[in-house]
Design brief:
Strand order of the largest sheet: 1-8-2-3-7-4-6-5-9-10
Distance between the termini: 52 Å
Radius of gyration: 16 Å
Number of helices: 7
Number of domains: 1
CATH architecture: Alpha-Beta Complex
Shape: globular
Helix content: 25-40%
CATH superfamily: DHBP synthase
Order of helices and strands: EHEEHEHHEEHEHEEEH
CATH topology: DHBP synthase
CATH class: Alpha Beta
Length: 202
Amino acid sequence: MKTEIVPASQIARALEVLQRGGIVAFPTDTVYGLGALAFNNAAIESIYTAKDRPLEKAIPILIGDLSDLDKVGFDIPDMALRLAARFMPGPLTCVIPKKPTLPRAVSATSTVAVRIPNHPDALALLRAAGPMAVTSANTSGAPNPLTARDVYDQLNGRIPLILDGGKTPGGIPSTLVDCTGEKPVILREGPITLENLISALE
């Protein structure tokens, strides 16, 4: 497979690849992500193959707009909707009940992690493509890719397309919060603190 690097503005080219069941690397507000359409099980499985990622690891869903939450979530708790409205786009990932039609390759459990990245190129792609299953565009355990070249160096020959949007900011991953109970439970610390979450819910 030949890996092509094109400017991040070439959304139509990325859509061609995604709609054929391919996977695409693109910049986000942390590192470069590697994504497939969220409802294409075979495409999501090819992310695992490209990355040498263990199949038991769930893959988060990125969306381009709050209105897309209903496409991937089921019976979404009010708490999740309020936190999403306050902190998305941004460094918050909410775990919510999963829509039953989402492929098992996304998550083998009844929940799914969802985020809206605060990056113009990522948002442009997600708003055009719809929800995508996305993880970091590196081989499993390798350094996180901050540039299109970093992605190419690790995944050349394994993926068809990289959208080059320049260097990404890196930084710490988003705060991961379980929104399925009565109160928010932080599963991974990040830029948004528990105090921030509680304050937003008051």
